[in-house]
Amino acid sequence: MEVEQSIRTVWDYHHMNHELAPADAILVLGSHDTRVAERAVELYHQGLSKWLILSGGLGRLTEGIWQTSEADLFREIALKQGVPDHNILVENRSTNSGENFSFTEILLREHKLFDILHSFIVVQKPYMERRAYTTFKKHWPTKECRVTSPQSGFEQYCQSSHPEINREAVIHLMVGDLQRLWVYADQGFQVPVQVPDQVMQAYQTLVEAGYTQHLVHTF
Fold this sequence. Notes:
The chain has helices at 3-14, 35-45, 70-80, 97-110, 129-139, 154-157, 167-186, 197-208; strands at residues 25-29, 52-55, 88-91, 119-123, 144-148. By secondary structure, it is of the alpha/beta class. The protein folds into 2 domains: 3-11 and 155-208, no CATH class; 21-150, Rossmann fold (3-Layer(aba) Sandwich), CATH 3.40.50.620.
């Protein structure tokens, strides 16, 4: 499989293509991409939920670069774009996807909300949609989840002023996140997923082409 075709195959596979509907809460997983926060605010203003839950401390792409947590920075964006503070909850300690859900659960239980919020729209980067879904289902298997991300094609998404959001960097990241689907499932962090043969072939093509910077080392 050609490299360019493989890039599109992996990019497309990461998307869950969920049809969104009103939910009890919008859960925003923090990252280095502030467009994730903007997408969540867009959904809030569309009336899809009254709760905006922001989760994220400093992760591997923001630690040492940002001076404030991902969730707190996302909160500033939400406030500037008209989301009332009383509709925002912030979890700002998590450093990975698993902690996003475990620490958010603690926060929701403190607010007596966990047992009454049954449906969620999870907002994440485009190449992490599927991993967000599988992680959600591992932690909260009885709750309903629809996943979305900033709405753009691959080339458009790669156009950003952030140093980690350019074409080469995004390819490295999305190859690493594809590998994590089976590695983290084997480690018990996510529910298992059957990756189609065509996607595995695309993964091998991109690894052989040198897109290995964000692979997990397995022994």
